[in-house]
Amino acid sequence: MEHWNEAKIKDFAEVKGGKRLPKGKQLIKEPNSHPYIRIRDLGKTKYLQLNSEYEYVDDETHQSIARYIVNKGDILISVVGTIGLIGIVGETLDKANQTENCDKIINIKNVLPEYLYYYLISSFGQDEIRKGTVGAVQPKLPLKNVQDITIFYPSIEEQERIVNILSSVDEKIEMNNAINNNLAA
C-alpha cells in the first residue's frame, strides 16, 4: 500500500440521504415504474436488481419524493438498524426511490464504484463504518460520518485489477451456491 492514496469519501464523492415515505403513504406490492429500495434489499449481491421482493410507491408519492431517486452506478449504504450493508444500483433500478435508512454515494471521482463497494464490504471498510456509528438503542450512521469514512485506494489501473479478481471470485461463489441449491432441491 506504499503507492496508495488515502482520502475521505467526501474528498472524491457526494453523499446524499434518502427520504421517508410521506405520512399516510404506504408501499404497494403491485409493480409499477417506481420501485422503492429498502435496507433489506442491500447486502445480498453486489448489484441491486429489480426482483419480485421489491415494493413500489404510487405516482403521487413518487412525485413528492422525486429528489430522492437513485441512478445506475450509485452506491447505497445502510445507515440505520443493520448498518453497513452495501449495494451498487443496477440498471433495472435506475430512477428507483431510496429509503431514508440508507445514504447514496454519487458523483464518484478517481475511485471505481466497484472498488469502493469491495472496500466498504471489507474488514477495513466495515471497521471504518463501525467507528462512525452512534447510538446504543437504535444505532445510526450519520451522513457526516459516511462522508468522513477513510478509504485507501491505488491507481485506477490497479483498482481495475483488484475488481476483476474479486468479481471472478464472486462469480465462482455464485456458481457454487447455484450448484449447492440444485443438489439440495
From TrEMBL:
Family matches, as Pfam families: Methylase_S
Example GO biological process: DNA restriction-modification system
InterPro entries documented for this protein: Restrct_endonuc_typeI_TRD, Restrct_endonuc_typeI_TRD_sf, Type-I_RS_S_subunit
Keywords per UniProt: DNA-binding, Restriction system
Every Type I restriction modification DNA specificity domain range: 1-183
SUPFAM superfamilies: DNA methylase specificity domain
GO molecular function, one term: DNA binding
Family listed: Belongs to the type-I restriction system S methylase family.
Protein name as it appears in the record: EcoKI restriction-modification system protein HsdS
Species for this entry: [Ruminococcus] torques
